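Researcher: Good morning. I'm working through a list of sequences from a screen, and I'd like to move beyond sequence-only analysis. For each chain I'm collecting a predicted structure so we can compare shapes side by side. This is the next one on the list. No need for commentary yet; just the structure.
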Amino acid sequence: MSSALTDKFLRELAENERFAGFVVLRSIHVRQKKDGSPFLTLEFGDRSGRMPGKLWDHVEEYRKILEPGKIVKLLGSVTTYQDQKEIQIERLRLTTPEDPVDRSRLIAVSERPVEEMRRHLRRLIEAVVQPGLRSFLRRFFDDPAIAGPWLEAPAGKLWHHCYLGGLAEHSLNMAEILLKVAELYPHADKDLLIAGALLHDVGKIEELSWDTDIDYTDRGRLVGHIVLGQEILLRHRQDGEMPEETWNCLLHLLLAHQGNGEQGSPVKPQTLEAILLYYADEMDSKANAFNRIIQRAREQGDRWSEYIKLMERFLYAGSKPQEGGEVKEGDLF
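Model: Good morning. Structure tokens for this chain:
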């Protein structure tokens, strides 16, 4: 095993490489050895992904100070157990205020700049024709307690748009998809489609936390982003701002956007706008996840992804696209 240390991201580490750096402790569980004595199974994470590890000694001391969400400094090497990479821990400690922690290494960030997405959001709001609905959207996103988290939050923990800025990116993508689709369905209300896209996942600003790691809040797990989103909209409603029918149709978009009860929606889509919103959500979320998984496989030189339990399939990555154009025969010599 090489004694050289690397500061690569977790998913970049190869077997036998030694690693030193700051990572987030994502989970910690007490397990028992065959002799009945305890050990700890841990999961570490950075913006590239996750990797497990085990602590065999000083279990009680570590158990008192370690908890999910804490940033730790980790020294270890990569081994393989049951065909899965894991960290063989050499040293582990909590970080101190003096440690030079780069938080951008811990959570991935959208490639779209925040200010660009803010301008995109404003353009979409101003494109809404109905005065009451436009007024509501202006006031809603003028609230710093909404706009700040909405532009910063991820859209998911592990599956789609699971990075800072992911919620805004996903919502803006959906609005553009729906405006394109509305060209084929001219009877669809474009104003409601824009509003539904921007608001359908707003509950995630309370469902998720994203300080050092993306995870669910207690209220997020207990209540869920659809109910939380409804509560947020109701808190911002002003009587008489828009017709009751428009308000009910807007709420329906939020409540029905996941399709059915099994997927978390209390009602099924019952309007043209709601069914279009549902499929736009399905397309953008799954395309984002597929793209991320396929690109990761290509970067690793794999033609197929690992098995994706959520989708019950492998994803085909094919060959990594060649850069720099075609290679001519004479270029090989």
